[in-house]
Amino acid sequence: MTKKKIIAVCVAFLFSFISFAQETPVPQQAQQANEPEFDINKTIFSHIGDNHDWHMFDITRKDGSEHAISFPLPTILVNTNPFSIDAFMSSEFEEGHKTVTKGEHTYIMKDQIIYYADANGNATDQKPLDFSITKNVFTLLLVAIIMLLMFIGCARAYKRRPGQAPKGLQAWLEPVILFVKDDIVTPNLGKHTDKYLPYLLTLFFFIWITNMMGLIPFFPGGSNVTGNIAVTFTLAVMTLLITNFSGNKEYWRDIFAMPGLPWPLIPIMAIVEVIGILTKPFALMIRLFANITAGHIIVISLVSLIFIFQSLAVAPVSILFVLFMDVLELLVAALQAYIFTMLTSLFIGLAMPEGHHA
Amino acid sequence: MDALSLAGVGAGLAAIGAGIGIGKIGGSAMEAIARQPEAYSKIQTAMLIAAALVEGVALFAVVVALIA
User: Which of A41, A42, A145, A342 has the fewest C-beta atoms under 10 angstroms from its C-beta?
Assistant: First the structure.
């Protein structure tokens, strides 16, 4: 299949998800004479966090009741003793109103977390292992497919048209890849560049593309992947593992038995250095998470200003601010990808020092 | 003085710190560009890196304020 056909199939597949959208009534707390109170905390945290379904928009029917249009995602729950897997669509939870019973386990979802439910339908403190395809998992898989399409297509273009000027997507990707190679990786890694370049390129493009997906307000974007601390934790753990597994003897000697130090101080300095090994990826994790989440919270708060003041006059001011913040977020998306990749390559380069000038 | 207002004060102090730090970085970057306009892109790259690192520190404080 040609590349155009593959892209067309993927786009059609994505759009078909919308046809699964269902309607669920939104719970109304304390229906007063005026509109119900706008809870900004709930709005912010429900947009920042992970969801078991993909919420598109709300519609208000003629009788005044609000319905949420969303399409459900598969829920996969693993119970540990005895080991069993329950898989079903999250629409069975009906936005947390209903308990779901499969076999001998009853589940209930509160605030997007699934607990075991007791006989009366109340949530206990126990949770099954939740391996569901949530919004973030779906976006991770989507970004993986996008990256595969981009790079495999680009590589095939080089084989098909050798020695000619690049065109199309290849022309856009080539300077970016060369920028990562020449300005980020080679100054830090020198002769070890080729070993780590694939991982660092993947890291750079993954963070950049997922940051951008979080900025698009409609399907298939709009999910906050890099603002999820589990995702950034995993990236930081990979940095930690790669850095320490490529450390050579001199790197470890500098941590545990640094030369030129009187021997009583070595245990203290060793502890400090070990903490230093852990804090560097920790800082990477927090930096990416906080930058992206803070940006999203600001945008959601600015848009919520319209709902808090409940007046249309606030709308132009709010939209202008949101536009400014979104452009800034575009810069932050690329910048954070650059910083993460640069610091990772710096740490890997530091783990392989060449010759010690004692 | 409940936890929520103290968290707000903490986040505000972090914003002051970030503002001062990035302001200084931007100021010295401007001076360096004025001295040597042909080094503009190198200086800009270094300025952006330093600004992102300083902002990272400020965002540590924001995360702690969010948790509180």
Answer: A41
Query: In 3D, which of A148, A189, A195, A151 has the Cα closest to residue A170?
Result: A151
Q: How far apart are CA A226 and CA A224, in angstroms?
A: 6
CA A235 to chain CA centroid, Å, is 10
In the predicted structure, residue A92 carries a pLDDT above the cut 60? yes
Give me the helix-helix angle, A135-160 and A169-179, nearest 10°.
100
Number of residues that make up chain A: 358
CATH number, domain containing residue B58? 1.20.20.10
Give me the pLDDT at residue A239, please: 92
Mapped onto helix, strand or coil, the DSSP state of residue A90 is helix
pLDDT at A246 (0 to 100) = 83
| The total number of structural domains that make up chain B | 1
Would the CB atoms of A290 and B48 count as touching at under 8 Å? no
A286 and B60: CB-CB below 8 Å? yes
CB pairs under 8 A between A and B: 31
CA distance A205 to A143: 10
SS3 content of chain B, % helix, strand, coil (to 5): 95, 0, 5
Which site among A226, A287, A342, A345 would you substitute to test the B interface, given the most B Cβ atoms closer than 10 Å to its Cβ?
A287
For residue A264, cis peptide bond before it (omega within 30 degrees of 0): no
Q: Which residue has tokens 């949101």?
A: A322
Instruction: Identify whether the C-beta of residue A52 lies closer than 8 Å to the C-beta of residue A90.
Output: yes
Give the pLDDT of residue A32. 39
CB pair distance less than 8 Å for B59 and A294: yes
Residue-by-residue pLDDT tens, chain B, 68 positions: 677 888 889 889 999 999 999 999 999 999 999 999 998 888 888 888 888 888 888 888 888 887 77
Q: What is the mean pLDDT of chain A?
A: 81
Which residue range forms the structural domain that includes residue B14?
3-67
Q: Which amino acid is at A194?
A: D
Helix, coil or strand: residue A144: helix
HSE, CB side, 13 Å, CA atoms: give it for residue A2.
3
Instruction: Check pLDDT > 90 for residue A166.
Output: no
Phi-psi bin for A30: left (phi > 0), alpha (psi -120 to 50), beta? Answer: left
Within 8 A of A232 by CB-CB distance, chain B residues are none
Spans of all domains in chain A: 74-132, 136-350
- What backbone torsions phi and psi does residue B34 show, to the nearest 5 degrees? -65, -35
Q: How far is B60 from chain A (nearest CA, A)?
A: 7
Instruction: Look at B52 and A294 and tell me if their CB atoms are within 8 Å.
Output: no
